[in-house]
Design goal:
The complex is a heterodimer of chains A (366) and B (129).
Chain A: E1 6-11, H1 18-22, H2 29-32, H3 64-73, E2 77-82, H4 94-115, E3 122-127, H5 133-143, E4 149-155, H6 168-176, E5 181-184, H7 204-209, H8 211-224, H9 227-230, E6 236-238, H10 246-260, H11 271-278, E7 279-282, H12 292-301, H13 304-307, E8 308-309, H14 322-328, H15 334-346
Parallel strand pairs in A: 1-2, 2-3, 3-4, 4-5, 5-6, 6-7, 7-8
Chain B: E1 3-8, E2 17-22, E3 25-32, E4 35-40, E5 54-63, E6 66-77, E7 84-86, E8 103-110, E9 123-128
Antiparallel strand pairs in B: 1-9, 2-3, 3-4, 4-8, 5-6, 6-7, 8-9
Classes of the chains: A alpha/beta (366), B mainly beta (129).
The complex binds FE2/S2 (inorganic) cluster (FES).
Chain lengths: 366, 129
């Protein structure tokens, strides 16, 4: 089976060095900036795939040509949605965090979306700092008209669930410019952010498994706080937060709603209706249990046909290969998941890649 | 099964590996502290080039919370998601009976077409496919 043309909704471009990203961060913040992920919850085995090509001493996934050739061309990826990782929302120094966003956005637009994007296959995310929603709204205004910026993104780590009204300035801008609002895991329970679990996980395995609890909290907050009534055109993208937990949580919310509606009377619809209308979810890391049928039942329950979009997480360690996901989901979901839903969401025109034969993978049939 | 001559014994030192393609099959040949092993260069999980991963040991519990790092040099970790495999038989550590990659037979022989007397210098490593 040949891979269809794919829209990959989660690719992580990196600066080639700390100096490169520093040169885009406004002074005087540039002088104090150091690139940090987060100390305690780092992957202890390997942060990224070890077989990814690098040029010289550059950081991994920092060369647009290599990402294009090794990932996009190899797997027939028509468009790649780029989500830079800056971990700003854990930073106690709000102005610093805002300026890191400016630096990352300018770097992404310059290096990835303009200089090295001849075919227009890289699409970008406007990184904002949710700790300062007013500044975040300004930053969206500044970048929204860039032709290759297709969404707004934040880390899932936060001091408050994203349904709270303090975040409205961000959603106003998302609606104004018709940009989805994407959450990506990271900075949960780190720096100034609250822990999304009971206390602090001891190990990375505990931390990483429970990242979905932060997503549960955000999703239930969006719905019960009435965000989708106030911003009916807002689309929220839950990136890398897991998939199969969603139906049970919404079932539970639905059951509660029947009795407790009076607490949240601005909720006009049932939870699943908001979900299918306003929320999209990405695949990786797809939970694939020994009995795939169990997961397929969940996919059906969350209307995966209209809500689920393929993501690889290139070049991180928990990368999902497109052919593996094709083998893991039911056949009728392949087109919607691999391109149709993302194409509608990000309004991406059909691009015939017309790759030469040797570049597109031939796969064993299912 | 057919034997394929790969290299002279002295060309694969302890801790070294060679990535081979034999009859269209990608295989990794390893010298694990003097034992030669060959396994399929494809991870049973998602098909990553397994034999490009790091060779390490593994952490186990000695008693209660006391840990021990054992079998250094005998465990291969997939370069993608980091699953651990026993280099000596291709079995995964987390589920050795059900999750494994194919191991091929490896022998050390003199090259049958050469007529020199057998000494260690002209012994070769053969992988059997
Ligand atoms: S592909 Fe090897 S561990 Fe996933």
């Amino acid at each position: 089976m040949k891979l269809p043309q794919i829209i990959d909704t989660d690719i992580h471009p990196m600066p080639k060095s700390e100096d490169e990203i520093k040169s885009y961060i406004p002074m005087p913040y540039r002088r104090r900036y150091t690139f940090d992920s987060y100390k305690y919850y780092s992957q202890p085995v390997q942060e990224s795939r070890l077989d990814v090509k690098i040029s010289g001493n550059d950081w991994i996934a920092s060369n647009p040509d290599i990402v294009m050739e090794e990932h996009m061309d190899r797997y027939n990826v028509e468009y790649g949605i780029l989500l830079p990782r800056a971990f700003v929302s854990s930073n106690p120094f709000i102005d610093m965090a805002n300026n890191i966003c400016i630096g990352f956005n300018d770097w992404l637009m310059d290096k990835w979306l303009e200089k090295n994007n001849k075919q227009g296959r890289f699409k970008g995310s406007i990184l904002v700092n949710p700790q300062d929603p007013i500044a975040a709204a300004k930053e969206i205004e500044r970048c929204a008209n860039h032709p290759h910026m297709v969404q707004v993104m934040v880390d899932s780590g936060s001091r408050a669930p994203f349904g709270h009204r303090q975040f409205y300035p961000i959603y106003e801008m998302c609606e104004k410019y018709d940009l989805p609002f994407a959450l990506h895991p990271g900075t949960d329970g780190v720096g100034i952010n609250d822990s999304n679990t009971l206390g602090y996980p001891a190990s990375f395995i505990e931390y990483h498994t429970l990242l979905c609890t932060g997503y549960m909290s955000h999703l239930v907050s969006f719905i019960t706080e009435g965000v989708f009534e106030r911003f009916p055109r807002l689309k929220v993208v839950l990136v890398e937060g897991g998939v199969s937990w969603i139906p049970p949580v919404l079932w539970r919310l639905d059951a509660e709603y029947k009795a407790l509606r009076e607490e949240v009377p601005w909720m006009k619809k049932r939870p699943f209706e908001y979900f299918t209308e306003n929320v999209r979810v990405t695949t990786q890391p797809l939970e694939v249990p020994d009995n795939k049928q169990h997961m397929w039942t969940m996919l059906e329950a969350l209307d995966a046909q209209n809500t689920l979009m393929f993501s690889s997480d290139y070049s991180h360690w928990d990368f999902d290969a497109p052919d593996y996901i094709m083998r893991s989901i039911p056949k009728h979901l392949i087109d919607p998941v691999f391109s149709e839903t993302a194409r509608r969401l990000y309004k991406l025109p059909n691009k015939d890649l017309n790759l030469e034969g040797e570049k597109s993978e031939t796969l064993q049939s299912l | 099964m057919k034997p394929y001559k790969v290299c002279k014994v002295e060309d694969l030192k302890s801790g070294e590996r060679k990535l081979l393609t034999i009859e269209g099959r990608n295989i990794g040949l390893f010298n694990v502290k003097g034992k030669y092993t060959a396994i399929k260069n494809s991870c049973p999980h998602q098909g990553a080039p397994l034999c490009e991963g790091r060779v390490e040991g593994m952490t186990v519990v000695k008693k209660n919370r006391e840990l021990e790092y054992i079998r250094d040099g005998e465990i291969l970790r997939c370069p993608w998601h980091g699953w651990e495999f026993d280099l000596l038989n291709g079995n995964s550590i987390f589920n050795p009976l059900k999750c494994r990659t194919k191991a091929y037979k490896v022998t050390i022989e003199k090259d049958p077409v050469e007529t020199y007397p057998v000494t260690i210098e002209n012994e070769y490593i053969f992988v059997h496919i």
